[in-house]
Amino acid sequence: MTGHYLFEPEFCNRAxxxxxxxxxxxVQDRRRGIWREAAERRWPDLATLNAWLHQxxxxxxxxxxxxxxxELSLADVWQQEHLQLMPNPRPFDGYVELVARVSATSLIHFxxxxxxxxxxxxxxxxxxxxxxxxxxxxxxxxxxxPEAVTLVRSxxxxxxxxxxxHYITLLERKPGALRNGAPFKTMPPxxxxxxxxxxxxxxxxxxxxxxxxxxxxxxxxxxxxxxEVALQxxxxxxxxxxxxxxxxxxxxxxxxxxxxxxQALALMEPPRADVTRYDRLRQGASTTGLTCFIFRxxxxxxxxPFDAGLSFVYLxxxxxxxxxxxxxxxxLPVPAEGLDMWSFAPNLPWDxxxxxxxxxxxxxxxxxxxxTKFLTAWDFYEKRYPRLMARLLATDFNVDxxxxxxxxxxxxxxxxxxxxxxxxxxxxxxxxxxxITAGTKSRKAHQSAP
Length: 450
Hints:
four-stranded antiparallel β-sheet
């Protein structure tokens, strides 16, 4: 105490009542009077008695006179002295600590009484901090962090004090414990009434366990309100309780606007169903980056549908810009002298490489469905860019064949090849790459097996 509150004690001599005789006599007389009045009453618990004793002592300050200044009461002198005192630091946390082991039934023993703790602590060692009115039990929590549970301390003997909420998680594995479990006999009356109704039917213990499990998510007060509403309605079931609980947790709808809404909120121009606005957006789109348009179309009747009758093909931004720079699908090669090709098609080598892969996989892929998908995409590109596709197919997808300036795309093509080799190299040793390679080898071996 002296180290916590930083004061120096000065004790009186033993058996020397004359050193503070007036103080001792006043305390003795007033203490006898207070306890005589307290003995004439009945107290429901220790907290109520302590609150009454605290108020009785405050009242005594106003009645007793100060021994040195009889014209003042103790309360008057305290008001003057209070102004000279230092601020009180954090209260001293005084407790008695000991280590106990939790039994198989999630009970701990302390001074001839047994207290329940969370069932997850069974067979574990816990720390008990004993206060005058409570016990704070510290045990292992989730992820190795300590967890504290506060229990009401009992001064009776040979008592077992249960908290039924400590056993809720056990019901997920053993719902039958509701029928004869001693801890659940201390539940609130509304839950006991619900339990009595549900246990009359087959599987009622599991339904009741489902209701009690909701306490860990929504709290005891909200679940009690939902149970009472379900009991009043007469339709008692776990679904009804959970439905009422969900409606209680649902946020309230926003307040409606008043009838006299301001004129500024009035609709001045009704919306028009003008689909040509999308064409204007497409014409004013930026020429950088990949495409953001998706073109959906019906495939030819001779092909089996890849999905629910529709497919999608990505419009390649570079090829789109290149094809429309000199008109819709111009004759090739285009006169590119004096023009900055990068402003029209910044990723043209990548898009040409993509078309080459589509042309290769529509003929050589092992899956018929995938071949159909790429064949559908190739059919779309041939219809949209007939001259460009024919030129690329005749020149084995040489990007330099689309312009009259030879070697115009050499630097871009070289950078593309370097990036492709780099991505293959860094991806060959990863776990995902090894799984894909192993899966491909397994499918090929299965297909080649007789």
